From TrEMBL:
<dbReference type="GO" id="GO:0046464">
    <property type="term" value="P:acylglycerol catabolic process"/>
</dbReference>
<keyword id="KW-1133">Transmembrane helix</keyword>
<protein>
    <submittedName>
        <fullName>Abhydrolase domain containing 6, acylglycerol lipase</fullName>
    </submittedName>
</protein>
<dbReference type="InterPro" id="IPR029058">
    <property type="entry name" value="AB_hydrolase_fold"/>
</dbReference>
<dbReference type="Pfam" id="PF00561">
    <property type="entry name" value="Abhydrolase_1"/>
</dbReference>
<dbReference type="InterPro" id="IPR050266">
    <property type="entry name" value="AB_hydrolase_sf"/>
</dbReference>
<dbReference type="GO" id="GO:0032281">
    <property type="term" value="C:AMPA glutamate receptor complex"/>
</dbReference>
<keyword id="KW-0472">Membrane</keyword>
<feature type="domain" description="AB hydrolase-1">
    <location>
        <begin position="73"/>
        <end position="297"/>
    </location>
</feature>
<feature type="transmembrane region" description="Helical">
    <location>
        <begin position="16"/>
        <end position="38"/>
    </location>
</feature>
<keyword id="KW-0812">Transmembrane</keyword>
<dbReference type="GO" id="GO:0047372">
    <property type="term" value="F:monoacylglycerol lipase activity"/>
</dbReference>
<comment type="similarity">
    <text>Belongs to the AB hydrolase superfamily.</text>
</comment>
<dbReference type="InterPro" id="IPR000073">
    <property type="entry name" value="AB_hydrolase_1"/>
</dbReference>
Length: 323
């Protein structure tokens, strides 16, 4: 083979190998930067814009797209512990492009203000979300609230506290219920260690891995984690069963979506909600764990929109009967 031809293949191979090696080196050295670029790309592709809202000295960060319109309520989405607003990107991909959508960073997460532990309790987060709702004037018309895991706990308590704000609510594998799971067992172990030692080692928290082995265990539980915030969110909450204590107060149309193989919050919680909340609709997903949003984004979006549309059609039919 001609020497020039060989050199050409070597040069071409080198041209391909260098960027590939650079990518993997960047991924291992600066994984957060890669994730941010990835999320930035998908936000742009999906038409989501990041906005900051200042209210009484507190800063909220959220992404949004679309505008409110007749017959379609705004959707406000609350993420789970140690995630952020971008965890909803896979679901947003399958929601109607004209749908008015807001995805907020929960208190102490990503771009939203970090203050003291009171804001990280469920009651504290409910108050902050209400503050956000007022600051962006979502109170003008009832909106649909969606929350997953910790965000589902907050959404459920919010629905109990502020029913006039909402037209309906979707709770996805919500925390705040007295269920048993591998995750709950680990929390109990942490509490016992805390009582014996008088302090809490944050490296022992299941959602904050510090070794490859702990990362593997965490992924088996719920499949995602990115940011560390004070452990009071997970351990030290005065009432870890806040949703259970408030679910009988929920009067708005309620949808529950749950993965049948959830190892963080056991699926038996769906039965508790169905019994306590009048007319509660329960959708259980086969071959799905705690991270429903990540594992089944298309199905999640479909279930949410079907529920919203059914509620709207039911309301329209009732109005026609009254007239």
């Amino acid at each position: 083979m001609d020497v020039d031809v060989v050199n050409m293949f070597v040069l071409a191979g080198g041209t391909l190998v260098i960027p590939i090696l650079a990518f993997f080196a960047s991924f291992y050295m600066w994984p957060a930067a890669i994730i941010h670029v990835y999320n930035w790309y998908w936000r742009r592709r999906l038409g989501l814009q990041v906005v900051y809202s200042e209210n009484r000295g507190y800063r909220f960060c959220y992404s949004h797209r679309g505008k409110p319109g007749p017959g379609r309520p705004t959707i406000l989405m609350l993420h789970g512990f140690s995630a952020n607003k971008d965890m909803w990107l896979p679901v947003a991909k399958f929601l109607p492009k004209h749908q008015h959508l807001l995805c907020i960073d929960m208190p102490g997460h990503e771009g939203t203000s970090r203050t003291d532990a009171r804001d990280y309790s469920i009651e504290g987060q409910v108050k902050r979300i209400r503050q956000f709702v007022e600051s962006v004037r979502l109170t003008k018309r009832p909106f649909h609230l969606v929350g997953t895991s910790m965000g589902g706990n907050v959404a459920g308590v919010y629905a109990a506290r502020y029913p006039n704000d909402l037209c309906s609510v979707t709770l996805i594998c919500p925390a705040g219920l007295p269920t048993e799971s591998p995750f709950v067992e680990r929390l109990r172990e942490l509490e016992k260690d805390q009582e014996l030692s008088g302090s809490l080692d944050p490296q022992g928290i299941p959602l904050i891995p510090s070794t490859p082995e702990e990362m593997d265990d965490m992924l088996k539980l719920c499949s995602f984690v990115r940011f560390k915030i004070p452990q009071q969110v997970i351990v030290g909450e005065k009432s870890r069963h806040s949703l259970h204590e408030n679910m009988h107060l929920i009067t708005v149309p309620t949808q529950v979506i749950w993965g049948k193989h959830d190892q963080v919050v056991d699926v038996s919680g769906s039965s508790m909600l169905k019994e306590a909340v009048s007319g509660c609709q329960v959708d259980l997903l086969d071959n799905c764990g705690h991270s429903v949003v990540m594992e089944r984004p298309r199905k999640t979006a479909q279930l949410i929109m079907d529920f919203i549309n059914n509620q709207h059609n039911t309301g329209s039919n009732n109005s026609k009967k009254l007239s």
